[in-house]
Amino acid sequence: MQQDSRSFRQGRSRERRREHGLLSTQTRVMMPTLSPFAGFPASTLSEQLKLAGILSLQATMTPSELAHPGKRPLSLLQSEMADEEERRKRRREKNKVAAARCRNKKKERTDFLQKESERLEVVNTELKSQIEELKQERQRLIHMLNRHRPTCIVRRDSVQSPESEKNPLLEHISAS
């Protein structure tokens, strides 16, 4: 008796799964997953998204619509699916435009930085050559000064030494 009821329950369970598309005459590969579609056969992503759309539409249906699924017009379901697809297309298009704009800005910024780097390298090279020229001129002037020093006779009347400078304080004392 228990055997009969168990096999009857298993038969009904199998029938329910077949009705819901969970069990077919063909063998389908079941992929392990943690998604809400865990009990459904593995399929393409687009099929899963369509199924998710249908499930979300069922979630928005009233209890009376769920009790009488044929009552909801097919055109309404199709228009809702078409609207969702149109929103997806617009979102993809906006994303594509934003990504292109981002790539262009990045390219412009990279080009600007490259040109600025090249300009600064030229300025750096010019400054280094100017430093070398100034060092050479300094060395040349030091060499000229060293050559001139032994022959230079300083005239006493044209050059004042620290000792010969007049001190205004001493002049004031000696005048009184």
What does this structure look like?
The structure is a single chain. With 176 residues, the protein is mainly alpha-helical. Among the domains are: 1-28; 43-72. 69% of the residues lie in helices and 0% in strands. It contains five helices and no strands. The chain is rod-shaped.
Topology:
Elements: H1 2-19, H2 45-60, H3 63-67, H4 74-148, H5 168-175
InterPro entries: AP-1, bZIP, bZIP_sf
Organism: Ictalurus punctatus
GO molecular function: DNA-binding transcription factor activity, RNA polymerase II-specific; RNA polymerase II cis-regulatory region sequence-specific DNA binding
Quick recap:
The chain has 176 residues and is mostly helical. The protein is 69% helix and 0% strand. Among the domains are: 28 residues; 30 residues.
The 3D shape can be described as rod-shaped
Order of helices and strands: HHHHH
Helix % is 55-70%
Alpha-beta classification: mainly alpha
Number of strands: 0
Domain BZIP: 85-148
Region (Disordered): 1-28, 64-110, 155-176
InterPro entries: AP-1, bZIP, bZIP_sf
GO cellular component, one term: nucleus
Comma- or semicolon-separated keywords:
mainly alpha; 176 residues; rod-shaped; single chain; 5 helices
